[in-house]
């Protein structure tokens, strides 16, 4: 598993907020992906300070397509 620093470098994430939430999602699992994103949004609004957090959504479809080639 990659560290947060590695993920930020791979995906060129330059955000410096106090909290960084990275969600990997896929169109193949759209229901689960939408649910995960809604859960993050809900938890941030209930328990977190939205101004101190950034959410980065990373689509993984190209990765799965490349496995079949």
Low-confidence spans: pLDDT under 50, at least 5 residues? none
* Spatial strand arrangement across the major sheet: 1-2
Most strands sheet = 2 strands, parallel
**Beta-strand percentage range:** 15-25%
Say how many strands there are: 2
Anisotropy-based shape = flat
Distance between the termini: 24 Å
Rg for CA atoms: 14 Å
Query: How many domains, in number, for the residues?
Result: 1
| SSE pattern, N- to C-terminal | HEHEH
Describe this protein's structure.
This protein is an alpha+beta fold. It has one domain (15-67). The chain is built from three helices and two strands. It has helices spanning 4-10, 30-47, 61-67, and strands at 19-25, 53-59. Strands 1-2 form a two-stranded parallel sheet. β1 (19-25), α2 (30-47) and β2 (53-59) form a beta-alpha-beta unit. It is flat and about 45 Å long. The mean pLDDT is 86.
Summarize the structure.
The protein is of the alpha+beta class. It has one domain. Helix content is 46%, strand content 20%.
Throw out a few tags for this protein.
46% helix; 69 residues; alpha+beta; 2 strands; two-stranded parallel sheet
